[in-house]
Amino acid sequence: MTTTFTIRPTVSEEALEGWIWTNDTTIQTNGFIIIKNPINKKSIKTFRRTIDNNFQAFYNDRPHTNDINIESGETYLILNEFYRNYLDIERTGQVRLEIKKANWWHILFKVHLAHPNPTVQFANRATIISIILGFLGLLLAIYSICLTFK
What we know:
Elements: E1 2-9, E2 19-22, E3 31-36, E4 43-50, H1 53-61, E5 76-79, H2 81-87, E6 93-101, H3 104-110, H4 118-148
Parallel strand pairs: 1-5, 2-4
Antiparallel strand pairs: 1-6, 2-5, 3-4, 3-6
């Protein structure tokens, strides 16, 4: 389902966080979601957090942010620069995006591969390489045992 979102940038403290803020009610739960730009077909897998009155007050008190008003009926999507650039959308304005809940496959394998924080990206890639090398080592050990008993 495509929804029109009013895009706003994150506050500086959340510039490298792997979540977005929204008041979109089409997905009822906080958790991992997929946001897709239907124009260029690019998508991100990220964690959804809900904009409430406390967040609105915090966000509006910050310098260099455009105010949000959750009572206005607008559907906001607060994204960091990494996600905006990846989806190829402007810093502010309105854009139509598709949003849906992520399944277990996306949560387990795809969410952290395109994380905004370079440290998390490096750690995830190192983990994947370690798992592959461990699996290869296990296969070689089994192969050598099989050769021993022939």
